[in-house]
C-alpha cells in the first residue's frame, strides 16, 4: 500500500487558510461571519498598475521570461532598493519569484542542510517554520514578550545560537505583531551576529511601506551585514496585489544564482504579465499608494481604541503591517457560555462561534497566549466585529 511522503505528512496546514475555510463553511450555513483572519488588503490593485498589465497583454508578453525575471524589472527593483533602502545591488543579485513565499522557499532549499538550525523570533510569520522544515532544517523559536513589543533582544539572540545555527529569519514590520525594529535594535542584533560569521539573515520586508512610525531599516544596510543578508520583498501587501504573485530578493550573488537555479527547475520563473505590471508598481512614487497606508493607519487606531474598551485584552501598539496581536491569556481557565477556554485556539474558535468573527490563534505564529486580528477590513466591519467580540465576552 502506498502512502504520502513523510515530508507532507509532517507539514501543518496553514492556520490562516484553515480559519478562512472554516469561516466559509459557517457562511454557507447562513451565518454572518466577519473575516479578520486573512493577511490581505481589502483594496483593489490600483488602476495604473492594472493598465500596465493590460498593456503587456496587448504587447504580446506571452513567452517564458528569463528565470530570475525580466532585465528591466530587475533594474526597477535595483532602483527601488537604492531609493528606499540605500542598498546597492547588481542584476545577478536579484531574483523575481512567484510571491515572497516562493522567495523564502528558494532560500530555504538552497541554504539549509538537514539539521541546520534557523532562529525564528516568535511570534513569526506562520509559514516560516514549515518552509524551514521542508528543507529539513530545525526551527529554533525565540519567544519574545509583549512588554518588549514582541522584539528579540541581543541577549536572547546570543543565547539561541549554537554551532548548528545557519540562519535567522524575521519580518519587520512583523506579521503578526506589527512590530518594527529600529536602527538601534538592528545594530544591537548585528553586533551579536558579527561574532558569528557563519549565520545568514533573511530580512522579510514585505510590509515595508505599511509603517506608521516611518523609518524602515533594512538589515543589509547595517554595517557588516550586506554580504550575509537576503532581503525579501514583494508587491502583495503595499500594492494590493496578493493574487498577482510577485516577490523578489536582493542577495549575495552566489545565493541569488542558487535561487535562480532552484526555480529554473521548479517554476521557470514568475508570470510574465504580473512582472510587467510590477515594473510600473515599483517605479511609481510611494505617494501613489499612500491612501491605502493612511487608511490602515486610521483603522489601526480605531481597533486599538475599541480593544482598550474590552477587559482582558492586553495589546502593544503595532507600528506597521495590518494586524494587532493581543494577549488574551486572561481568559484561560474561564468558562464562557458553557465553553471552557484553555488556550488561544479555544478562544479564537469561541469568537468564531459566539461572535461570528474569524481571527487566528497565536499558536500558529509560535505564541500560544495571543490571537491575531487583521484590520484589513472596512471601518464598518471592524466596529461591528469589535462590538460582537465585546458582547460575547461578558
Ligand atoms: N512574508 C510575510 C511576513 C507575509 O505576511 C506574507 C504574506 O502573508 C508573505 C511573506 C508572502 O507574501 P507573498 O504574497 O508575496 O507570497
Could you explain the architecture of this structure?
A 7-stranded mixed sheet has the order 2-8-7-6-5-3-4, with helices on both faces. Strands 9-14-13 form a 3-stranded antiparallel sheet. It has a two-stranded parallel ribbon with strand order 1-12. Helix 11 packs parallel to helix 13. Helix 6 links the parallel strand 3 (117-122) and strand 4 (138-143). It has 13 helices and 14 strands. The chain starts with 5 loop residues before the first helix and ends with a helix. By secondary structure, it is an alpha/beta fold. It is 39% helix and 14% strand. It folds into 2 domains: 6-44 and 289-392, Aspartate Aminotransferase, domain 1, CATH 3.90.1150.10; 63-284, Aspartate Aminotransferase, domain 2 (3-Layer(aba) Sandwich), CATH 3.40.640.10. The structure holds pyridoxal-5'-phosphate. Pyridoxal-5'-phosphate binds at residues 39, 99-101, 125, 171, 175, 204, 206, 234, 236, 242, 247.
Ligand list: pyridoxal-5'-phosphate
CATH superfamily membership of the largest domain: Type I PLP-dependent aspartate aminotransferase-like (Major domain)
CATH-scheme architecture of the largest domain = 3-Layer(aba) Sandwich
Q: Give the integer mean of the pLDDT values.
A: 96
Number of separate domains: 2
The main β sheet shows up as: 7 strands, mixed
Number of helices: 13
The stretches of 5 or more residues where confidence is low (pLDDT under 50) are none
Overall, the morphology is: globular
What is Rg?
21 Å
As a percent range, the share of helical residues equals 25-40%
The CATH topology annotation of the largest domain reads as Aspartate Aminotransferase, domain 2
